[in-house]
Amino acid sequence: MSRIDHKREVTMTDVAARCGVSYQTVSRVINEMPEVADATRTRVLRVIEQLGYRPNMTARHLVSRRSTVLGHVSFAIGLYGPSQTMVNVEESAKQAGYRVMFTGVVDPNINEISRAVNELCSHRVAGVLIYLPLEIDLSVLRTLCQNIPVVAMDSDLNFKTTAVMVQQKSGSRIATEHLINLGHRRIACIRASQAWRPGRLRYQGWLSALKEARMSPGPCIEGDWSPLSGFQAAQTLIKDHWGEFTALVVANDQMALGAIRAFHEAGVSVPDDISVVGFDDIPESGYFLPPLTTIRQDFPRVGKLGVQCLLEEIRSGPCGVRTYTIVPTLIQRASTARPRKKCQRPVRGKNGDLNHR
User: Fold this and answer.
1) What pTM did the predictor assign?
2) CA distances from 180 to 26, 164, 176 (A)
3) What is the CATH number of domain 168-293+332-356?
4) Which long-range contacts (CB under 8 A, 24 or more apart) does 77-80 make?
5) Which of 17, 32, 212, 264 lies 20 to 30 Å (CA to CA) from residue 233?
C-alpha cells in the first residue's frame, strides 16, 4: 500500500491510489453519484476518512478557470414544478459550496432562450442547468454551450448531454391504473397544454394505460395548469359529458383543486360520484376536501441529482452522456374510491346553476 506524505494536502488522486480505483470513481463517490458499487463506495469513504481528505474548492475553481457560480435557466417559475426545481437546485448547490445565477425565460422562443444562456455564459458560470420542459427544438444550445458543462433537467434539448428525467408518462399511467384497479371503466382526463413536454407525456400515459386495459378513452378537456382552468374544464365535463365517466385523471394538482370545486358546486360528491387523481403532490394536496390522491414527483431528488451531475463534469471533465430517471409514486388519499353502480345526475336549476339530483 502506498504511503502518503502528510506534510502536503491529500488529493483525490491519493485516495484513488490507496483504494485501487480510478480518479473518476472517487469523484463519483464524493458527489454521491449512483454509478458506484456499494462495496467500492464503502471502501472509498473509509479511505477518505483515514487520509483526512477534504475537497479543495479553491483549487478546483482555479483549475476550471471558472467561478463558484452555477447557471440555471428556467421558465414559468410561478408554477409549482419549475419553482420547486429552482429551489432545490439552489439548496443543493449551496450545500456543495456553489451559488446559483438564475435566468428566467418569459417568452419561450429560441431567441429568448439563447439570450438567457448567453447571459449566463458571459458571467463565466462553472456550468449550466437547463430546465425548459417545452416541445421546442433546443439544439441551437449545443453551439452556445460547447465549452461549458450542461445538464438537462426533465427537458429534451435535442442534442446529447447528461440529463435528469422524470418519468412523466409512467406517473400518469400509474394514476390511471390505480383507477382501473378500483373498478372504473370510464375515465376522463383534464390534460395540460401539449406545448409542454410533461403535459404531452402525462396525456400519453393516460391513453396508454387505457389502451393496455382495452378501454376507450373518456372525454378529455385541456387546461393551462391553473385551478381556474381545472374548474372550467370540470364544468364542461359536467355539462356536456355527464354519465360518460366515473373517474378523472388531472394533469396537475392545481387543476384538480379547481375540478373538485366545480364538482362540489354542482352537488357531485368526490369520491362517491367521481374519483379524482392529480399529479405533483403539492404540500396542500393532503388538505384538499377531500384529501387528494396524486402522483408525487421527487423534486428534491431532481435538484440534487442535477447539481451532482453538473459538478462531476465541472470537477472531473466529461464523463460520457448519461441519463438518470426518477420514477414518480402514487400517494393514495380520500379522493378515489370504487365506483358506485349509478351516479346521480347534476341538473341546471331555474337560476342557471348546476344542482345535484
Assistant:
1) 0.79
2) 46, 30, 6
3) 3.40.50.2300
4) 77/104, 79/225, 80/252, 80/253, 80/254, 80/280, 80/282
5) 212
